[in-house]
Structures are given as C-alpha cells and as structure tokens.
Design goal:
The chain has 133 residues and is mostly helical. The chain is built from 3 helices and no strands. 0% of the residues are buried.
Length: 133
C-alpha cells in the first residue's frame, strides 16, 4: 500500500506542479494580452477623438461659410426689395404728378375765366422767379 501511495505521489506531484505552472503562465500571458489590448484601445480611442475634433472643426467651418453665404443672399434680396420699393414710390409719384398736371390743365380749360386767371398768374414776377429756378 505504501508503494501504491508513493507511486501515486510520484505521479501526482509533478502533474499538480505542472498544472500550477501552466495556470500561472497562462494567467500571466492573459494579463499581458489584456494590457496590450487596453493600450491598443486607448491609442485607437485617442486617434478617433482627434479625428472627431477635426470633423467638428470642419463642420463648424462649413456651417460658418454657409451662414456667410445665406447672409450675403439675404442682404442682396433686401437691397433688391429696397430698390424695387424706391422705384415703385418714384413711379407712383410720377403718376400722381402727371394726374395732378392733367387735372390742373383740365380745370384751367373748363372756363375762360380760369384760363385768364392762369395767364394772369404767369405774368406775376414771383411766379416767373419760381419758374426760373
């Protein structure tokens, strides 16, 4: 029986020692691989963060250029609207002036008294000074 125990111990002790050695070696290799993967992930993450910052800056610049373009378009449209408004006011003023002249001439030629009154007013020195201006 002793021989059996000694035989078992002789065969089991090296197997157990080899098992522990293999376990610790595998654990050491796994920890080294985990550290290596963490470093790679950190490096990749920092690279992605830098790329993200560059992309954000690019988008900001693109947005700024679009805003400048929109502002220029808006300014141009406002200038066109203002010019159209001025032209419309000028046209209405000319129409009103023409209408007033037509009405004045129509009223003056309605009766001879009004025509003579108008001719008399034209001989007035103040009126002549005004017309020379």
């Amino acid at each position: 029986m002793e021989d059996l125990l000694i035989t078992l111990l002789v065969s089991c002790v090296p197997a157990i020692a080899t098992g522990f050695f293999a376990f610790f070696t595998a654990k050491k290799n796994a920890n080294a691989k985990i550290r290596e993967l963490k470093e790679q992930n950190d490096h990749e993450l920092s690279k992605l963060m830098e790329q993200h910052k560059i992309d954000i800056e690019s988008l900001k610049e693109k947005h700024m250029l679009e805003m400048e373009s929109k502002n220029a378009d808006h300014k141009h449209k406002m200038e066109v609207i203002e010019l159209e408004h001025k032209n419309d006011l000028l046209r209405k003023e000319q129409e009103f002036e023409a209408s007033a002249k037509y009405n004045a001439m129509n009223t003056a030629f309605e009766s001879p008294e009004k025509l003579l009154s108008l001719l008399g007013m034209m001989e007035n020195p103040d009126f002549q000074k005004y017309m020379k201006k």
